[in-house]
Design goal:
single chain; alpha/beta; Rossmann fold; Pantoate--beta-alanine Ligase, Chain: A,domain 2; three-stranded antiparallel β-sheet; 9 helices; 8 strands
Length: 284
Amino acid sequence: MIKSISEMSAFSAEAKAERRSIGFVPTMGYLHEGHASLLEQSKKQNDFCILSIFVNPLQFGPNEDFDRYPRDFERDEQVARNYGVDAVFYPDVKEMYPSEPSVTMRVNKRVDTLCGRTREGHFDGVATVLTKLFHIISPDRVYFGMKDAQQVAVVQGLISDLNFPVELVPCPTVREEDGLAKSSRNVYLSERERQEAPALYRTLREAAERLLERENITHIKEKMVEYLEKQTSGKVDYFEILSYPELEEAHETDREMIIALAVQFKNARLIDNITINPDGRKYR
């Protein structure tokens, strides 16, 4: 475990001096199989795998769940050992933000829809912490799950616009046997809600089939929202079909697109998506 920025930077610098490649998996901890799949991919493609665990306060709004975000470092550290992680970067808030910043990041595109529409400043916080982490760790590749597809799109823009010498590696969503996307927030579902939750993925798959059959996009969205409202007790926050990674309104199906949804249950807000290429391939 490494807790200081200076020690983490020194570790990375030594690896670079030895011409070792570094794969980086940034997380907020409470690791599950989805995170494990990122670690596996990083281990396959790099000489060193670095995992960061940092619950970033800049990503949470005033009414969001920073204090109750699940934390279990001992368990996370064991997962890291099991997957052969070479270093775990585990800084505290004072280490990452020792004083009020004089420079802040602002994301201008790909954030005014999906989760970004109701989480003002969230992706600014993501961009800020990743900029710091990229400078501290200097990875060759960084790994994100497509479950958070909007985040992947934002990170892609961050890397491109600021010319970070790092390759973004998107990895498919990891799911339970019934299709529910793995998430740290699934623990907040009641027994009834957990039984309802697989309807989210069923809805995405149905929408994908309709989209590939060239059904009208507006009609698809209306029908899928109706289905979700019947199949779950949650409130549908959004159901969108957009171009990807631009996250703009889509009218044609001859380009990569994303079908994305969010459903608010009593104590957990679940998101999921399917990304479709023109040839019909999906991230599942």
